[in-house]
Amino acid sequence: MPAGSSAERQTARSLQAAETRQRLIEAAVQHFSENNYDDVAVGDIAKSIGVAHGLLFHYFGNKRGIYLAALRSAAQDLENSYNEATDLPAGRQVRAIYAAYLRYMSAHPGLGLRLVLGGRGADPEAWTVFETDRWHAIDTVATILGLDPSVRPLRLMLRAAAGAVDEATVQWLQHDKPYPVAKMVEAFVDMTAAGLRAATRLDARVKVDAALELLSQDPPHKRPRRQA
């Protein structure tokens, strides 16, 4: 037997197991995006990628286990999207974050709504997933705008603004997306600016003028049109 062949087979099995687990998560994201939780069967998730449903129980324990894994995957996808436009001006970076958020929620409405609407009391584990992602987004936006996200008035009011963004997104999805993404993004920018101004009401020592200036820069209607 060639040296190292046993280790190589073990590595191959581990890679295959990781791939299968990831495919199950991706299938679960799709199923929970398109259907209510109670209408999703673990057998349907497994069948959609051609594996025995026992594998799902092996990797995730039960239906709730893969549901939480799907929520974590959704939150990670959102988090990854926040880092895709770091070479843009600050105002456009913030807009790119909001646009990515809306696109993801639009593509995964069922799962996205449950991520937002989980609620502390209704589903504490799902809420933890959502809240971790939300704070990451807040910290990212604050840093882009040159603000310290640990400053309490800013943290309080930016979380409030994020809550307004989430509620507006829920209403947008539930009413068949009546406004284009670009308009929703500009409304979200206005909500963020309002949160920054509100922070100065709580503590006049908080300075947000430079951040507001960055936020106001490079809106779509002020960008030069591309030549045909």
Q: What is the alpha-carbon Rg in Å?
A: 21 Å
Beta content comes to under 5%
Give the uncertain stretches in residue-range form: none
Task: Give the overall shape.
Answer: elongated
Helical content class: over 70%
Distance between the ends: 65 Å
Secondary structural class:
mainly alpha
Task: Describe the oligomeric state of these chains in a short phrase.
Answer: single chain
- The total strand number stands at 0
User: Roughly what is the average pLDDT, rounded to an integer?
Assistant: 86
The biggest beta sheet reads: none
Q: Give the ordered list of helices and strands.
A: HHHHHHHHHH
Q: What is the helix tally?
A: 10
Describe this structure in words.
By secondary structure, the protein is mostly helical. The protein starts with a helix and ends in a 12-residue tail after the last helix. The model has no long low-confidence stretch (mean pLDDT 86). The chain is elongated, with a radius of gyration of 21 Å. It is 72% helix and 0% strand.
What's the topology here?
Blueprint: H1 5-34, H2 42-48, H3 53-60, H4 63-81, H5 90-107, H6 109-117, H7 124-144, H8 152-174, H9 181-202, H10 209-216
Helix pairs in contact: 1-2, 1-4, 1-6, 2-3, 3-4, 4-7, 5-6, 5-9, 6-7, 6-8, 7-8, 8-9
